[in-house]
Design brief:
Helix content is about 75%, strand content about 0%. The longest helix has about 35 residues. It has two domains: about 60 residues; about 55 residues. Helix 1 packs antiparallel against helix 2 and helix 3 packs antiparallel against helix 4. With about 140 residues, the protein is mainly α.
Length: about 140
């Protein structure tokens, strides 16, 4: 993406140089030719940069390459969410096992449910602080 955008900008620069070198000798016509040329230049440069940036972003997304690295707080929050989900699944599984357990296995199954509830409470109690995302005003405040 970046290579293609760079090549397109180079071609555009050569075209702009050609436009400047072949402007007519009429001063009024030259002024308008330069003005229109600059408008076209800015428009085409903007299009090329946006297409190049979009190409890079889509390629990175397709390859699962993050463009922004996660902070340690964000990683901790994601790990905690995974632990919380795992504890909830263990509790649900233990409750299903208790419901399906015969009378002679209910004591062990209820013990497993208590352990899963304790583990879930422990995971909920150890929640890290929620990460504050980057603000658009971080550089200005």
């Amino acid at each position: 993406g970046a290579l293609l955008a760079g090549a397109a900008v180079t071609v555009l620069q050569l075209g702009a140089g050609w436009l400047l070198s072949y402007t007519p000798t009429n001063a009024l016509l030259a002024t308008f030719a330069i003005f229109v040329g600059l408008l076209l230049w800015f428009r085409l440069i903007g299009i090329i940069m946006l297409v190049g940036a979009a190409w890079i972003a889509i390629s990175a997304r397709d390859e699962n390459i993050p463009l922004l690295e996660k902070t340690e707080a964000e990683q901790l929050a994601e790990e905690h969410a995974a632990l919380l989900l795992a504890a909830q699944v263990r509790l649900r599984t233990a409750q299903e096992a208790l419901d399906a357990a015969p009378w002679y296995a209910r004591w062990a199954a209820s013990r497993d449910v208590r352990r899963a509830e304790e583990e879930l409470a422990e995971v909920k109690a150890s929640a890290p602080p929620t990460p504050r995302g980057p603000s658009a005003l971080d550089g200005f405040v």
